[in-house]
Design a protein that fits this description.
The protein has about 170 residues and is α/β, with parallel strands linked by helices. It contains 6 helices and 7 strands. It has a 5-stranded parallel beta sheet, with helices on one face. The chain is globular, with a radius of gyration of 17 Å. The two termini are about 25 Å apart.
Amino acid sequence: MSSDLAYLDTELRPSTWNDYVGQKSIKDNLKILIRAASERNSHPEHILFYGPPGLGKTTLAHLIAKETGRQMKVTSGPAIEKVGDLASVLTNLSAGDILFIDEIHRLNKTIEEVLYPAMESGTLDIIIGKGPSARTIQLELPPFTLLAATTRVAMISSPLRSRFSGGVFRLEF
């Protein structure tokens, strides 16, 4: 993307809840989720957005980061090709960061399974070696919020979908 287009994208993207038009029930639910997390002195729970392209899934993720004052790291399903790619992203998060994965339906199953304990208990299990001499190292991750977006929710496995404890939100036209 040229610098002019990137600038336009940043300038035109709504920067407050009031600037974001539509999706009222989703915005209301997100505000409650964010307020509840704030009152518990915690980070918001993991959230999945789905729906057709262009309805504001990415914009909602940016608004959540802005509203909570958290740093947001952005990646996409196709960019995470190996377990090491995911491990690198997760271990570089700081406490309270938001990880936004666009097109999460394009993660392969092996990577998805590594993501489960990261989302549930904040740990990353890394297997070193192969066969009988393989051993597992468990890394503690800082608390983080996973925000994910997809246009193909049916391609996301049920176990992954169930880990979005903050909610699975369908954006409408």
